[in-house]
């Protein structure tokens, strides 16, 4: 009779352990599923460039709607892109000095001046690059891309040169200096012996040999003479 409570107590312990294990597994499964569901959303988050490109494309579309008369994208040309760029100048924040301004060509003017504010060349160049890509992403043909027209490229080049002179800033890309390559020193050439030098060397060898023989023969004669007198 006393064993029954022990069995009941062990059953209750097993039941509580099973409940704890089930709760732990449920929590772990919920955590893994939440992490799995959140990973695709983080990978599909558009980049800063994509967000800016979308905003620029929407701004250009709104400009076409407000145009008089309204323009469709299929009728848009390089001339309309130039109108859009000039329209954006009213929202510019870059001071572009005129030739009659005393600060013309000064990169850091010491005082304010009444020269107009314009869009910086770098901003316009990046804007055209994003709109050019957005045009093709939205079904436009590369050969009909108005943002890649020759007139647009010439206008950007003109703006770059004008602002470079007016602001005293060079927009030329600096060339990266390559590290100096270590010159491999070639081994010195082997010494060149002339025929006369070889002959003189052979002659010296013969003379040295004759001198050695003469020296030893003199010693032999001296030894024989000493033996004869003894």
From TrEMBL:
Alphabetic keyword roster: Developmental protein, DNA-binding, Nucleus, Transcription, Transcription regulation
Identify the residues that the record assigns to the ALOG domain, covering every copy: 48-175
Any one Gene Ontology molecular-function term assigned to this protein's record: DNA binding
Low complexity: bias regions: 8-47
Which cellular compartments is it found in?
Nucleus
Q: What highest taxon heads this organism's lineage?
A: Eukaryota
Region annotation (Disordered) ranges: 1-54, 167-191
What Pfam families would the database entry show? ALOG_dom
Which Gene Ontology BP annotations are present? Answer: mRNA transcription; response to light stimulus
Q: What do the Gene Ontology cellular component annotations say?
A: nucleus
Q: Which PANTHER family match?
A: PROTEIN G1-LIKE2, PROTEIN LIGHT-DEPENDENT SHORT HYPOCOTYLS 3
Q: Which family does it belong to?
A: Belongs to the plant homeotic and developmental regulators ALOG protein family.
Spell out the protein name for this chain. ALOG domain-containing protein
Which source organism does the UniProt entry give? Hevea brasiliensis (Para rubber tree)
């Amino acid at each position: 009779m006393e064993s029954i409570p022990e069995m009941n107590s062990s059953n209750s312990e097993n039941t509580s352990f099973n409940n704890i294990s089930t709760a732990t597994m449920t929590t772990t499964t919920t955590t893994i599923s939440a992490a799995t569901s959140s990973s695709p959303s983080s990978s599909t988050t558009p980049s800063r460039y994509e967000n800016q490109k979308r905003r620029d494309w929407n701004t250009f579309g709104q400009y076409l709607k407000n145009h008089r008369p309204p323009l469709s994208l299929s009728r848009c040309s390089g001339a309309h892109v130039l109108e859009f760029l000039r329209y954006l100048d009213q929202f510019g924040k870059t001071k572009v000095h005129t030739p009659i301004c005393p600060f013309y060509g000064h990169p850091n003017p010491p005082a304010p001046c009444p020269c107009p504010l314009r869009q910086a060349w770098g901003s316009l160049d990046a804007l055209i690059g994003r709109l050019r890509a957005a045009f093709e992403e939205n079904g436009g043909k590369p050969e009909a891309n108005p943002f890649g027209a020759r007139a647009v490229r010439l206008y950007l080049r003109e703006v770059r040169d004008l602002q470079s002179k007016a602001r005293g800033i060079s927009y030329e890309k600096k060339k990266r200096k390559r590290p100096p390559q270590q010159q491999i020193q070639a081994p010195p050439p082997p010494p060149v012996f002339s025929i006369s030098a070889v002959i003189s060397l052979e002659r010296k060898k013969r003379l040295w040999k004759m001198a050695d023989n003469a020296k030893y023969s003199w010693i032999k004669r001296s030894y024989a003479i000493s033996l004869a007198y003894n």
